[in-house]
Design goal:
By secondary structure, this protein is an all-alpha fold. Helices cover 76% and strands 0% of the residues. The protein has a single domain, classed as Helix Hairpins, CATH 1.10.287.3510. Helix 1 packs antiparallel against helix 2 and helix 2 runs antiparallel to helix 3. The chain is elongated, with a radius of gyration of 17 Å.
């Protein structure tokens, strides 16, 4: 068992979440947006497992596995949608896509 303090784990989770949030808010490539969302989900997992180890619970680890499974499904569906959009429009840049506009 490691002796990493909870505060350092929470700082790591906050930094990862901030990096993902900046990626979501500033980038215009759909693939980069999906990767940024994955980084944000991993930050939540780090924080959840940190709290779980700090309090001695095992439920946090189980919940983290469910979040990883949801993230994998989100990545698969997201990449399928990106591939479909690229085949029809020829681009993955959000500024050039007007699929939802009439």
């Amino acid at each position: 068992m490691s002796d990493i303090p909870l505060s350092e784990i929470l700082i790591l989770g906050a930094v990862l979440f901030s990096i993902g949030l900046v990626g979501v808010l500033t980038r215009r490539n759909i693939l980069v947006l999906l990767m940024s969302v994955e980084v944000m989900l991993n930050a939540v997992n780090v924080t959840l497992v940190g709290f779980s180890r700090y309090h001695g619970w095992n439920e946090g680890h189980v919940l983290a596995f469910f979040i990883i499974a949801v993230a994998a499904a989100e990545a698969a569906v997201g990449l399928a949608l990106v591939l479909a959009v690229f085949r029809t429009k020829g681009t993955v840049w959000i500024d050039e896509l007007k699929l939802l506009r009439r």
